[in-house]
Amino acid sequence: MTTVTATEAVTVVRTTMSVVLAFGDEAEVCKTVIRPPGEEWGEYKAIVLGTGPWTGSSGEEGRWLFCQGDTGSGVGAVAAHSTGDGQWTTQSLGLAQTKHPGDVINVDFGSYSAVSLTRDSLIFGGHQHVWTTDSGTTWYSIGPLGG
Fold this sequence. Notes:
With 147 residues, this protein is mainly beta. The protein is built from one helix and ten strands; from the N terminus they run ββαββββββββ.
C-alpha cells in the first residue's frame, strides 16, 4: 500500500457513488460502469485495469473492478464493486486518464478492503496515487498529474 511522507499533501477525493446494473464479462461490465445505458457517446473501448476480492464495511463479500475509457472517451479511472447480484456501485476516482505512450495505471490489492491505484507518466515525469482502506467509502490522493 501507499506510504505517505510528511512533505506530501494528502487530499480526500470527492466521489459520487452511482449504482448500475451490469452483467457479462469484465470488459462488458466496464463498458457499462464507465458510461451507463442512456448516455450516448459513440464508439469507445472500456479498459479493465484490475479486478480482485472486495469486502464491504458490513462484512459482505464481492469483487472490485477498476476500469477506464480509451483515449477518445475522456474517462479516467473508475472503481466499481459488486456482491455478485449484477448491481455495481461505481465511483470516479479523479485519476487522470492514461493517454500518452509510457502512461500506466497499476492496481495493488492490499486486502479485501484496501486497494491503491498508481498512475505513472513518463512524459510528465510524475505519478499520482489514489487509495482506500475502508472498502471505498473514503478515497485519498497524492500527486495530481496534468495532461
